[in-house]
Design goal:
Oligomer: heterodimer
CATH architecture of chain B: 3-Layer(aba) Sandwich
Structural class of chain B: alpha/beta
Radius of gyration of chain A: 26 Å
Shape of chain B: globular
CATH class of chain B: Alpha Beta
Largest sheet of chain B: 9 strands, mixed
Distance between the termini of chain A: 57 Å
Shape of chain A: globular
Strand order of the largest sheet of chain A: 8-10-7-11-9-12-13
Number of domains of chain B: 1
CATH superfamily of chain B: Class I glutamine amidotransferase (GATase) domain
Order of helices and strands of chain B: EHEEHEHEEEEHEEEH
Structural class of chain A: alpha+beta
Number of strands of chain B: 11
């Protein structure tokens, strides 16, 4: 048999730099075999090793009284009381989805589901945060339709509800879309499983789908370099998903986890068998021996290199107790799945793979998992930023017709209803979805309890583009505020840090600013980051994306009956704005849509003020004072008022506001730390007292009334027709 | 009462149906496995929603060959109650227990929404607790829920009062805008000639609690329970269902 000679050139083809290759030779004291080179290439890829981000990620707060498992495991885990733990993570599948939107997005969902049930949790809900280019771009509609259908295909078939997410369009994503998938599961807190191999001699068991040639170098290397013109040629590197097998795997694994047979478990994600075996051995400070001849294959003639690096989906690697093999196999057979013993745990700290009597890999585990390179790449603030941040409101004229301006905003791609997308997702399976997509955050009841989790994912990339630090702060703050709006206490964060090419100093600077922003906001709000993912190299032919640190946040409601929604409930209820409106237009959706300007500084934020607002809202919700609550976000007060009117009943509002500021800033400015609430008139005094106690500005705006939205003399919109246009807008744009 | 819920590989709403019968109704809920050959003495079998066997062929086409289906067919032939929801409806059509077929939605997209359905006949065990023309609000979530049948079959269904539910607008009118999937005649659910087997695309088990989806779906469960106990239901006359 011919063995390919390994050289520095071959290493370069695998994405390893000459320095990295030199380090490998030093670590081994010899040249690696072809298979070993493949293993190093994926394990030291940016995607798997976090070599450009690791030094900075350490700044994030990851601890807290509720934290059971922080970053490093398959998913983060927090204590949610009643003996239960919430297990959650967000992960990117950007590069594969751009090449093949349907399968790319579908397998993104599949991967994140496995990360969660690997820990012993039944997934209870998913979210998807999506970014696409301008709707005018010729490829956008194709990508949007493919991604949304792919998410639906996988999530619906597996039977995990997709309860929310977010979706934005911006020219900065014309050549690099973002598909970030989040799943939350629930497990008994004393039945969590980890990926730590233990017990020399314990069998290593392969379960799930067979290994094929698909997806070799898919997630690992695809996501570790920028795209060039030949991106379409990488389609074979995108994996193909089979949600039916995933569903069987999920049920079989949960059934196994209820027994005492299992020692450790890890899904085969990026870098497949190699990465899962090494991660289990590394975390358990053990060694592992794999017999590659025993790996179930989909096709004959696969080489050991392909077997080690295939990223075929719906596969798991287990370590079980000696003597449990037959019992484990029986559980999987019941679900019509294969389980094969392919190796055993060893105590020599070495990862060995044998194939046809030959040892193709013999690598010290620590060398691969702990000696991976760490880069502190140069960072530099881009010069263009100062100019972009400069904005004088006097440059733009107030629209003569503010009603028309509001309508334009409500029909714009980023503010119109997302119903076209979420109608394609099963939002209900599981029977616990209390607040569906369309509100500030989703609310999912914890089965058999009075409690519920609230879930949201947020990031305004225009803010991040104009100020990467402040943008990251605002992403965290908005996520927390969205949870508070449904009556939930924010608990913890999973972040998906999407950036351009880290080898560019300006991108590295944006990344560092983003980390600092998340750190400061999470420390202030007491929401640790318990899991996450970094996605670099979102760049095509030199065009990078705007910085997009996606923040998924989980909150807890002690009484699910006390949850809130944004929609008006009854005529005569009083509408109150909590928080202060400043004369701010910078970085707003209004400026972009009505004036075509992406300029100015994002809105001002003071984290102490924000905390007072959130405390006030939670106190008011706990006292059952509120009938509705809605965060004032993109599009400002006028858009928020319209959204509150778009609930089922179609109730309108009569609003009278006085202010000395420009009308467009009052209506469309995006000042932070504001919540729009409605309540019965008799609770007004109590809410005012609470607001005074927290020193939050309290403004009675008007009342719920009629079937139109009237804001002083400025705006008058009939709810029914406006809602119809807002609902239809996205589908119509995509159909063009 | 004793309900059975069949789990096929790929069933998703099986746990939800069991929750409703056991925790909401307080009845006995028996989890039935597709490889089982008997129904464990249940009085009503529920075939739940999901994607049995991945639905990679035609929806429900594989499930009809499951060992449990022979027992379900026998139970149905003996007059026992069978409720097929969504994928369960598709399986009942494939198995020949219900007429017609469910094909890809006219829109070609999966659709998850809340619909209004109108009770077209109360002469079934599942609807005899309703009044004719009652409007029920229930969720749908399917990619292949467009009900089709040839003209003769449709005419026969209408003539024999076997169309149990139709998609309607909030005023109760059968209009195209209220039809979420292109079903012929806005048909949302049908029963067999014996009236003991009901299939519908909307999900009554997801409309069984005030907090999640409302309670309109409970009427079907209550009705079936009352029918089995032969309880009088308001001004309704007993459904003409053949005795076992």
């Amino acid at each position: 048999m011919s063995v390919l000679a390994v050289t520095a050139d071959l290493a370069a083809e695998h994405g390893l730099t000459p320095d990295e290759y030199g380090k490998i030779v030093d670590l081994l004291g010899r040249a690696p075999t072809f298979e070993e080179l493949g293993v190093f290439a994926v394990m030291w890829s940016e995607h798997c090793s976090y070599k450009s981000s690791r030094a900075w990620l350490r700044q994030l707060p990851t601890g807290g009284t509720r934290v059971i498992e922080g970053p490093g495991e398959n998913a983060g885990v927090v204590d949610i009381g009643d003996g239960l733990a919430a297990v959650f993570k967000i992960e990117s599948h950007n590069h594969p989805s751009f090449i093949e939107p349907f399968q790319g997005a579908a397998t993104g969902v599949g991967g994140i589901l496995r990360d969660v049930f690997t820990m012993g949790a039944r997934p209870i809900a998913s979210l998807d945060a999506l970014r696409f280019g301008r709707l005018e771009h010729p490829r956008t509609a194709y990508l949007v339709k493919g991604v949304v259908a792919g998410i639906g295909h996988y999530g619906n078939c597996v039977g995990v509800p997709t309860v929310g997410g977010d979706l934005y369009f911006d020219g900065g994503y014309d050549h690099n879309i973002l598909v970030n998938a989040f799943t939350c599961g629930v497990a008994p807190r004393d039945r969590l499983f980890r990926a730590r191999a233990a017990g020399p001699g314990n069998p290593v068991v392969y379960v799930g789908a067979r290994t094929g040639r698909d997806g070799i170098h898919g997630a690992s290397l695809l996501a570790s370099a920028a795209f060039d013109a030949g991106a379409a040629g990488k389609r074979p590197a995108v994996q193909v998903g089979d949600p039916f097998t995933e569903k069987l795997l999920l049920e079989a694994c949960l059934e196994l986890m209820a027994t005492e047979h299992l020692v450790a478990i890890q899904d085969m994600g990026a870098a497949g068998l190699t990465s899962s075996a090494l991660e289990m051995a590394g975390r358990g400070e053990a060694g592992m021996l794999l017999e590659l001849d025993r790996v179930p294959l989909r096709e004959p003639g696969m080489t050991p290199y392909e077997i080690l690096l295939s990223e075929s989906q719906e596969r798991m690697l287990l370590v079980v107790r000696q003597g449990s093999e037959a019992a484990v196999e029986a559980i999987f057979r019941r679900w019509d799945l294969e389980a094969s013993v392919i190796g055993r745990v060893t105590d020599d700290g070495t990862f060995r793979a044998r194939w046809r009597g030959r040892e193709v890999c013999g690598l010290p585990v620590a060398a691969l998992t702990q000696s991976a390179p760490v880069y502190r790449r140069p960072a530099e603030e881009p010069a263009r930023l100062e100019q972009l941040q400069h904005f004088d409101p006097a440059e733009v004229r107030e629209p003569a017709d503010l009603t028309d301006a509001l309508l334009r905003l409500l029909e714009s791609p980023n503010l119109c209803s997302r119903e076209w997308a979420y109608r394609q997702y099963d939002q209900l399976v599981g029977g616990n979805t209390v607040v569906r997509p369309g509100g500030d955050a989703a609310v999912v009841r914890l089965d058999g309890t009075r409690r519920a989790l609230a879930l949201t994912v947020d990031c305004n990339s225009r803010y991040c583009q104009l100020d990467p630090y402040l943008g990251a702060v605002l992403a965290v703050v908005e996520a927390a505020r969205n949870l508070v709006a449904v009556g939930a206490r924010p608990l913890a964060v999973s972040d998906c840090l999407n950036y351009g090419n880290p080898e560019r100093p300006d991108v590295m600077w944006e990344f560092q600013q983003g980390i600092a922003g998340i750190r400061d906001a999470c420390v202030a709000l007491g929401t640790p980051v318990v899991s996450g993912n970094v996605s670099f190299y979102n760049e095509t032919e030199g065009h990078g994306i705007p910085p997009t640190p996606m923040i998924a946040m989980v909150g807890l409601l002690d009484d699910v009956e006390a949850h809130l929604t944004p929609w008006w409930k009854a005529e005569g209820d009083v509408i109150v704005l909590l928080g202060r409106t400043r004369e701010e237009l910078g970085a707003s959706e209004y400026l972009a849509i009505v004036h075509g300007l992406v300029r100015g500084a994002p809105p001002w934020i003071d984290l102490e003020t924000e905390k007072r607002l959130q405390r006030l809202c939670l106190a008011a919700a706990a006292e059952h004072l509120l009938r509705s609550a809605h965060d004032v976000a993109e599009g400002g007060l006028a858009v928020a008022l319209a959204e509150c009117s778009f609930g089922g009943a179609g109730l309108g509002a009569r609003i009278a506001v006085e202010s000395g500021m420009r009308a467009d800033a009052l209506l469309f400015g995006e000042s932070q730390s504001r919540m729009l609430v409605s309540l019965r008139r008799r609770h007004l005094g109590r809410l005012r007292d609470l607001a005074r106690r927290e020193d939050v500005q309290f403004t009675v705006l008007g009342e719920v009334r009629g079937s139109s939205l009237a804001i002083g003399e400025m705006v008058d919109l009939p709810i029914e027709q406006t809602r119809a246009r807002w609902r239809r807008a996205l589908a119509e744009r995509l159909a063009r | 009462m004793r309900w059975g819920v069949v789990t096929f590989p790929g069933s998703n709403d099986d746990r939800d149906a069991l929750r409703v019968v056991a925790r909401v109704l307080g009845d006995d809920g028996v989890a039935l496995w597709h490889k089982d050959r008997d129904l464990g003495g249940v009085e009503c079998v529920i075939l739940p929603g999901g994607f049995s066997y991945g639905d990679y062929l035609r929806c429900g086409a594989m499930a009809k060959f499951s060992p449990i289906m022979a027992a379900v067919v026998e139970h149905a032939r003996a007059g026992g109650l069978v409720l097929g929801i969504c994928n369960g409806f598709q399986i009942l059509c494939e198995a020949g227990l219900l007429p017609g077929a469910l094909v890809r939605n006219r829109s070609l997209s999966f659709v998850c929404d809340v619909v209004t359905i109108r009770v077209e006949t109360t002469a079934t065990p599942f609807t005899h607790g309703c009044r004719p023309g009652d409007l029920l609000s229930m969720p749908i979530k399917h990619g292949e829920g467009c009900y089709v049948a040839d003209e003769a079959t449709l005419a026969e269904l209408e003539a024999r009062d076997q169309v149990v539910f139709r998609y309607v607008d909030q005023a109760g009118r059968v209009v195209p805008e209220a039809n979420p999937n292109g079903s012929l005649g806005n048909v949302a659910g049908v029963c067999n000639a014996g009236r003991n087997v009901l299939g519908l695309m909307p999900h009554p088990e997801h409309a069984a609690e005030r907090l999640v989806g409302g309670e309109d779906g409970l009427k079907l469960f209550h009705s079936a329970r009352a029918w089995l106990r032969r309880e009088p239901q308001g001004d309704r006359t007993e459904a003409p269902v053949p005795e076992p």
